Structures are given as C-alpha cells and as structure tokens.
Amino acid sequence: MRTLRFIFNFYLNASIHVALAVISLLGVTSLVLEIPLNLSLFGFVFFGTIVCYNFVKYGVEAKKYLVVMNAYHKNIQALSFFCFGLAVYFLIHLDRKIWVAVLGLGLISCLYAIPLLPKTKNLRSLGGFKIYIVALVWVGFTVLLPVLDNELDISWDLKILFLQRFILVVALILPFEIRDLQWDDPEIKTLPQIFGIYKTRMLGVILMVVFFLLTFLKDNLIGVEISMRLLVSVLLIIVFLQRDRVPRKYFASFWVEGIPILWFGIYWSLKNLY
C-alpha cells in the first residue's frame, strides 16, 4: 500500500498527470478540427510539459534545479532530464515552421519562473497575471501548435476554439488557486486573494456557462461536440460547487486535472464508434 502511494504521489509530483491532461487537450483539438494525430507533436508536448512544469515547480532558481540534495527530488530531476532528451528528439521530427512558436512558448514558460534581469520579478510574480500566462501557454501548446503543424487558416470556428480553450484553462486553474490560497504570496494577487473563495467559485461557474454557450456561435457544429462540451461544463460546475472538497490534497491535482483526460477518452471513443 505504501509503495502504491509513493508511486501515485511521484506520478503527480513529477507532473506526469498534468502532461497527460495537456496532451488530452491536444487530442481534443485534433478531433474537433478533424486533423491527424501527429505522434511527434504529441511526444514533444507530453515530455516538454513534464520538463516545463518540473522546472517551474522545483527550479525557480537554476542552481536549485541543477544541484539537488533531496533524494526524492533527484528522481524527479533525473526524470526531467530524460524527458528533456525525448522532447528534443520529437521536436527535431517536427516541421521547422513551428519551432518559432515553440521557442516563444518556451521563453514565456522560462520567464514565468526566472526573471529576465537580476533583481526583477518573474512573470509569476506580476500581480494578477499568473493565471492568464499559464492559460496562454496551454492554448499555445494545445491549439496553436496543431494549427501551425497542419497549416490551417484562422477561421471563425478556430477563433472560437482559441477563446473556449483559454476560458477552459482559466477555469481549470481556479481550483488550484483556491487550494493554494493559504500558501501563495499576497503579491501574486490570485483571483481568490482579490475576490475571495466564494466569488472565485461563482466566477468559475460563469466561465463554464460562457464556455458552453460559445459552442453555438460556431458555423460548423456536430452533436457529439455539443455533448462533450456540456459534459466538461457540468463536471467543472460541480467542482466549483464543492465548497469543502476543493482544498483537499488530491481533489485539484488529480480529479480536476483528470477532466481533460476523461474528455479526450470519451470523445475519442465516440468519434471512433460513430
């Protein structure tokens, strides 16, 4: 039992679960746009997410990321370096036209944790910007990259997809901000710090209603897409109505982050079934 708990905690702490969530959103994009599932892109985004998230969580200072004393964190560090090598391998197999986008998204991710200049703040410390920066990067990796990879024109429906994905990621982050309220530096000015927990939860509900209603603004719409967006909206609304469970240890890091994985799994099954 203790071994299983260790493996489960390592799975979460090493950012493997969040990486699965990110590539699940990438998979949803491929299904919605009816474009091929590029295994090289999936591999790069999966392993790159592990590296990026572990760097943000454990490498706020570069020296801390390279010189690790704790044995548990050494294992995460070793995994991160291994994943970095795999991310580079898959990136090499991608078309060079998306390398510029990857460079830009990677730079934003680095500046999120490390200041550009000495004695300056990183992007995470800029009051009120944290949640939007994370959402922007997720949108970039899960929508922009497959669009560039398939050389798609920016249509009206695609603009709706960009907006919906941004709203969804913001909503997915809110439970984490509520959970981390007691630990976050007041200077970060997260939404729970500004509005309080109740108003933040209600904001989450409103965001999911908007997320779902935007679906009906698309020019090309199929029933399965409506059903899937309704499912995701209902699940997250239920999350925001769980007043006592959000602060719990695994509620956000496993269950909330697992919603995109569930979304892709069901969506993929339905698309292949019909």
TrEMBL record:
<keyword id="KW-0812">Transmembrane</keyword>
<feature type="transmembrane region" description="Helical">
    <location>
        <begin position="12"/>
        <end position="33"/>
    </location>
</feature>
<keyword id="KW-0472">Membrane</keyword>
<feature type="transmembrane region" description="Helical">
    <location>
        <begin position="198"/>
        <end position="216"/>
    </location>
</feature>
<feature type="transmembrane region" description="Helical">
    <location>
        <begin position="129"/>
        <end position="148"/>
    </location>
</feature>
<feature type="transmembrane region" description="Helical">
    <location>
        <begin position="76"/>
        <end position="92"/>
    </location>
</feature>
<feature type="transmembrane region" description="Helical">
    <location>
        <begin position="250"/>
        <end position="270"/>
    </location>
</feature>
<keyword id="KW-1133">Transmembrane helix</keyword>
<feature type="transmembrane region" description="Helical">
    <location>
        <begin position="98"/>
        <end position="117"/>
    </location>
</feature>
<feature type="transmembrane region" description="Helical">
    <location>
        <begin position="160"/>
        <end position="178"/>
    </location>
</feature>
<feature type="transmembrane region" description="Helical">
    <location>
        <begin position="39"/>
        <end position="56"/>
    </location>
</feature>
<feature type="transmembrane region" description="Helical">
    <location>
        <begin position="222"/>
        <end position="241"/>
    </location>
</feature>
<protein>
    <recommendedName>
        <fullName>Prenyltransferase</fullName>
    </recommendedName>
</protein>
